[in-house]
Amino acid sequence: MSKNLVPGTPGTGSPGLTDAASASDLNDQLCQPRNPIYKLPDKYTGTHFWSANASNHEVLYNFLLPSILEAIGDGSVENTEDPFVVCDYGAGDGGTSMKLMAEIIKGIRKKHGEEKPIVIVYEDQPWNDFKSLFCLSQGLFGDQTSFLPEDENVFVLASGTNFFTRCLPRNYVDLAVSCCAMHWLSKRPCSLAQDIFCRGDLNSEEELEAYKKQAAQDWETILLNRTAELKPGAHFFLVTSASKDGMHSGATRHYTFRITTYLKDLWLTFAKTGRITMEEFVNTNVAYFQRTEDELKAPFLSADSKVSASGFKLMSLEINETIFDISMQLKNKKLLDEEQRVIAHYARKYVNALRGWINAVFMSGLDGRRSKEEKMAIVDNLFSQLEDDVACRPNDFGYDMIVAYIDILKEK
């Protein structure tokens, strides 16, 4: 840890590894597919937990809007009597793209009229929080609005697959979008001995090469599946976590604490104090890779490019550092009760935004002989310590992201 803040020592006295894990827990593990599983804790399912906390992702989606509306207005996809199909890949509970979808619908109506049927497909893994997605789309949460009641010719569907496979019929999609999903890998290529993220500074050459190879294979697979699904003339607009000048999301120079390093250090503290084992630390790895500009462009540039041969053309790619500074920017003064409540709310929201995607990573790293309840207690303790630290120093934590904005066209 840097700047004198050390992750709090986790509580001791919890039982260690035992063989008393319930049969149902073991069966849960045996039934899991080999691909990494990233799912919310069950208690958050159906509460739109993800979109209620990941406001930064909503902003990233909205950055795409001008380019998307321009593409819709150009009418590059041939207008037929078929519905206009929009697909959001890796959509989560759909809440972070809700405002974007409302504007997309307006753009389609302006171009194609009020009677044009519109189909919106939300794609994500089978264990995604689709309950929240459909409640959000129907406007059933009191704190959210929906685009559906305003337009009877809009139809919402879900594809519970994963974007490493074909999700939709060939030549089906008129417009594709995605936000912060395509950096995930189809599998964890190896364990990381000294880190939970593959970033390069603490990884061996063998570890880094394994992740790079897997990321290259998966990126090509993703693109080939999408070019099959898109209609000629359709665009695929996406935002994905990336790497630039040695910086990664959660590890820029903007904040005192780089959250990816913080989480690694805190988890390592758990191992050193006996709360988890070193083997569990080594087995806790995030199966994602933040590609560089060259790595993102590579499938389009090689002499024998399958992606280019399939009709996909890279129209634009720009990588930027994006900061979401929602901390309080407090002055050094005695806090009033209301200010303390605001800070506590900020700390909880900040931790929840992280927990929405990384909770399952820590759960999966723990030994299968632990019960589900014990695993949850350990991970709850981890995030509780993070929340306390953020509340103590709210200005030193934040959302710092390196993101690539990409526009890909399927040529006619």
TrEMBL record:
**Annotated keywords:** Magnesium, Metal-binding, Methyltransferase, Transferase
The keyword Magnesium is annotated on this UniProt entry: yes
One BP term from GO: methylation
Entries under InterPro entries matching the protein? MeTrfase_7, MeTrfase_capping, SAM-dependent_MTases_sf
* Family annotation (Pfam families): Methyltransf_7 (PF03492)
Q: Which GO terms describe its molecular function?
A: metal ion binding; methyltransferase activity
Question: Origin, by domain of life?
Answer: Eukaryota
* Region entry Disordered, spans: 1-22
What this protein is called in its record is Probable S-adenosylmethionine-dependent methyltransferase At5g38100 isoform X1
Annotated organism of origin:
Lingula anatina (Brachiopod)
